[in-house]
Amino acid sequence: MKIQKNTLDYQDQKTNIMYFLPDLNDEVKPVFVILTHGYTADKSSIITWAIRLAEVGASVALFDLPGHYQGNYSEVYDFNYFKEHAHELFLQAFNGLINAFKEEFRLHEHFTLPATLKLALGGHSLGAMLALKALMLPEFELYEKRAIAVGLGMAPKDVVHLFDTPFYKSTLNVREQLVSPELKPDNVFPWIKEEKYNIQMVNQDIHLITGIDDLVVGEDGMERLQESLAQKNNRVTIDKPSKLPHHEPALAASYVKKYLKKINWL
Questions:
Q1: d(C-alpha 47, C-alpha 45), whole Å
Q2: Which of 18, 40, 86, 231 fits a 20 to 30 Å CA distance from 180?
Q3: Cα R_g (the chain), whole angstroms
């Protein structure tokens, strides 16, 4: 495969992205996958997903979220702007992947047409939530598309989520310093919780993957999210591996690949 390094624009700054293009000598599929990582992490945490998919013919964009210092030193100066616009980076990444694909595979340009291309938006945890939001962007309306959300669930409204416990918050002392001050847990965690309850998605295809041993999502958090999304006429499938702890999202690579094979995209 070939890896191209580039950047995305975020306000007056840049955030990093990599495009993973399949080997021209193997079968190139009309499948694009756009991915991003979870809170306080960076693209290296899920780089296995991109590699596994590019190995079997998909073209993949994997980008760092702004304000996440392990991926880049960009800043988030306005949390409200991040809330309203961070998911739009999926669209910018998609457009960049189209350009990279056309440069590499000039005889396959027709693969990028809406009538041909299959598009998956995915991520881990925070990245998964942003992928769900991005799936509803009007620019993607004409494409056959779906979301793949790893490590994302919904806790009952009357139950204290792990994020809100004193023990978990105490473990974030170091991790909080890995992101812009505007992305501190006291800002991000309540927003994520609110988004999951209020996300506006209708008639979409969504696949949820969460490990039995994912203590952040909890025992039935994924199923609660599945039920909530299904109530809005979304088609939601799930996969629950026995070993996929929240802090090891790289282990989800085989399950992401298996899902795309199951729906005959790969």
A1: 6
A2: 18
A3: 18
Phi, psi of 151 (to 5 degrees): 70, 40
Cα separation, 125 vs 90, in Å, equals 15
Tell me the C-alpha distance between 191 and 175, whole Å.
Answer: 18
Tens digit of each residue's pLDDT (9 = 90 or more) over 86-97: 999 999 999 999
Sheet of 13-21, strands arranged across: 2-10, 13-21, 59-63, 31-36, 118-124, 144-150, 205-209, 235-239
* Closest to 10 in 3D by CA, of 69, 92, 70: 92
**Which two three-digit tokens encode residue 100?**
């990279």
- In terms of residue numbers, what domain contains 81? 2-262
| Closest to 80 measured CA to CA, from 159, 17, 11 | 11
pTM of this prediction?
A: 0.94
SS3 57: coil
Euclidean distance between CA atoms 38 and 96, whole angstroms? 21
Mean pLDDT of 23-29: 90
- CATH number of the structural domain spanning residue 110: 3.40.50.1820
Provide the H-helix boundaries in the chain: 47-54, 79-85, 89-104, 126-134, 166-175, 185-198, 221-230, 253-262
